[in-house]
What we know:
The protein has 159 residues and is mainly alpha-helical. The chain contains six helices and two strands, in the order H-E-H-H-H-H-H-E. It has one domain (3-143).
Amino acid sequence: MDKSIIMHEVQHAIQDFEGFAKGGAPLKTVQGEYKLKYEADVNKLRPEFIDLLAKVRRGESITNKEQAKLDYFQAVFDKYAKYQEEADRVAYQHYLELAGEVESRNVQTRIDLTPAERQRFNPVDSEDVERAKQFVRRKATATTPYKSPHAFEGFLSYD
């Protein structure tokens, strides 16, 4: 296994031992789906959409009104798929902003520095997410488009 990955995971163990900010993972990668706003509304449209689609696939004719509904449903589902894709991107971005993940990636960035270079370059300067955008969790967390399912615990500060 790559030394960099091992050190990333060792840093998570150190965070746990020392009580430092924790990392996490996007919710979809650890325990399934998260619920998006409007999901219930979109799901209510599916039965009628499926019925109309089955009618078309059986070769039955449909009215102009039914065709308009079919087109509407398709547009809603296409838009919702894009919404879901963006939500996944945002959940991943929130994962990247977890202070524990920033710290562990920074270990990877600095792993090959000499002792003299480590003294010369402040770890804050090599973080890939600025401090003001990091968020702290006391427990490893799964992120969603809405940050995480856990209560907000504050931002890191420069103090």
